[in-house]
Fold this protein.
Amino acid sequence: MIKEFYKIESVNGELNLPGDKSISHRAVMFSAMAKGISRIENLSDGDDVNSTIFCFEKLGVEVERVGKSAIVNGKGFKNFSKPAVPLDAGNSGTTARLISGFLAAQNFESTVIGDQSLSKRPMARVIQPLRLMGAKFETNQQETLPLKILSGANLNPINYNLPVASAQVKSAILIAALHCDEISSVRDTFFTRDHTERMLGLKVSNDSNSKLIYSSKEFYPRAQEYFVPSDISTASFFIVLALLLKSSELKIKNVGLNPSRIGILKVLKEMGADIKSENERESSNEPIGDIVVKSSQLKNIEIDEQIIPNIIDEIPILSIAGLFAEGNFKISNAKELRTKESDRIKSLCFNFRMLGLNVDEEESGFSVSGEITNRNPVFESFDDHRIAMAFSILSLLLKDGGKINKFECVSISNPNFISQLKQING
Ligand code: S3P
């Protein structure tokens, strides 16, 4: 489906956005693993989290969705049933990678599959450490999905140094380790998002260069109530829109303000953005608050390598902010962008070239300069929700608007993106 956007003048008002995708996946998984009833409030309504629910239903877990909440009747330690069909993770890397850690410890065989995009994304990064723990897999030469996980593994604990900045890999190992009596540890030098450790209450020791996270059976999840904060990654599309339009002021309520996720706010503030957080508090062991954002004049800055893992999902929309900021936008040291729902370096460069801009594409980043010359752009989403939403925001800022091809993929994280835009466009 091609979606057309026209220029708008300003946005104002208040928004309540869906629950954070990363936290929602984990809330469903940990509720499914715990014995008994858990309740999850403000669960993400995106297709990705539905893929996680679907997989656990196939493993015998009952999940009832009531509006924005879900009630999960969890199975408890190793009480799951062998799935009769392959477990379809759809487009969701978090589902495929985290569930692999869980399945590696079950005493039945299972297969994880995914859509075309997910079937190209690297799984070796989770297969390798799980094999070191004793898990047995059958896969193709490239070690991509489908992934067959053979039964009967009694996993051994592991001490693992994370070789890649991936919270999904870290979490897959920590989840597998929940099935071992003895303690495992994962060293994370990248300070990736820490929802798994917070939600499981894992033991963590910090030094200035790394974090060491411990996991074992002692931390196996218990049934509980979760409140999922609204998704900072989803909020960032609306934040950038309000910053770049004139006479705009937006309040986004109950947004997750976890330090491992708010790099986007830090970078935008350094660029000159007027963003404030208020009503800050804790909910389900996650910091949360309301974000107030006002129209601002932005200037491009040098983006530090250290902050890349913290802003990895927001780089598409950050590059749109950079396009309208003084100076040229440049991102480096972000090779991981090539392993996302699309090769995001390629997708972003393609769409910027579509506008007639000069684009310098490198292996781990790109820079953009020049003037927009194409007044009738048709952007490609590459079936990537964050690319579709980033260029929708850009289209709302262009004099003659713009179109997005294959727009429907926004439902991966935010099926109600359009109605939220309508709500704030006075
Ligand atoms: C996620 C981790 C990140 C992120 C993804 C969600 C998670 O992926 O890009 O959207 O929930 O753990 P990587 O672990 O591949 O960096």
Q: What stands out?
A: The longest strand covers residues 274-283. Residues 385 and 410 are 4 Å apart (CA to CA).
